[in-house]
Amino acid sequence: MNNYKALNYIYQSSGVEGAYTLLLLHGTGGDETDLLPIAAKFGEGVNVLSLRGNVSEAGMPRFFKRLAMGVFDEADVAFRTHEMVAFIKELAAKEKFDPAKLIALGYSNGANIAGSTMLLYPDFLAGAILLRPMQPFKKLPQPVKTSRRIPVFMSNGVEDPTVRAADSKAYQQLLEDAGFAVNAFNLEAGHNLTLRDIEYAIQWFEQNFETAAIK
Ligand code: MLT
C-alpha cells in the first residue's frame, strides 16, 4: 500500500493524433484553472492536463509541504512526486494521451515539483518550462543522469525576493550536469510572471518541439 491519493485535474484533448500534452502545475494557493489561459497561448494542437496539488497550507493548495519559505520538506517532495507520476501514468490510459509526450509548465511551487520529477524520473518528461523555479532538493536523493538532452526552459526574475540569483545559477548547472539542455532567462521581474516569460516560453516551445500539429 503506497497511500497515494488521486489529484484533482482538468484534461483538455486537442483531438490531434500524437499531440504533446502540456502538464500545468500551479503556484502556491492556485489551482488547476490558473494556468489554463497561458496554455491556450501555445495553440490548439496541444493537449492540456492541469493538476491541483494535494497538499494544503492553511487552505492554499501546494504540490508538497514546506517547512518555511523556500525550505522544503524533502521527504514530502519525493513522496508527492512519486504520487503525481503514478497518477499521471494511470490517467494517460484513461484520457488517452501519450505519457511520453508530456511537457511540464510549472510556476513557482509547480515548477518545483516539475523539477523534482526531472530529478527523480529523468526520462519521464519530454520537456519542461520552469517559471520562477527553485532547486527542490538540497541534496539529491539519487545521482541523476539522462542522455536524452531533454529541453528545459527556465525563467528567473532578477528582483525575485524568494530566489537568490546564485541559487538559480547553481540549479541550472545541476540540471545541465545531469544531461538536461537548459535555456535560462533572467528577466527584469520579481516573483510574478510577466508577458516576457510567456513569450519566451512559447518561442522555446516552437524551437524545440514539432509544431506542425499546433498551427
Ligand atoms: C515553493 O515551492 O515553496 C516556492 O517556490 C515558493 C512558493 O511556492 O511560494
What does this structure look like?
The protein has 215 residues and is α/β, with parallel strands linked by helices. It is built from five helices and eleven strands, in the order ββαβββββαβαββαβα. It has a single domain, classed as Alpha/Beta hydrolase fold, catalytic domain (Rossmann fold, 3-Layer(aba) Sandwich). The strands form three sheets. Strands 1-3-2-8-9-10-11 form a seven-stranded mixed β-sheet, sandwiched between helices. The chain is globular and about 40 Å long. The N and C termini lie far apart (44 Å). Bound molecules: D-malate (MLT). D-malate binds next to helix 3. D-malate (MLT) binds next to helix 3.
What percent of the residues sit in helical stretches (DSSP H or I)?
A: 25-40%
- The CATH topology label is Rossmann fold
Biggest sheet details: 7 strands, mixed
Strand-residue proportion: 15-25%
Class in CATH? Alpha Beta
Measure the end-to-end span: 44 Å
In total, the number of strands is 11
- In the CATH hierarchy, what is the superfamily? Alpha/Beta hydrolase fold, catalytic domain
Attached small molecules: D-malate
Count of spatially separate domains: 1
N-to-C SSE string, H for helix and E for strand: EEHEEEEEHEHEEHEH
Q: Main sheet: which strands, in order across?
A: 1-3-2-8-9-10-11
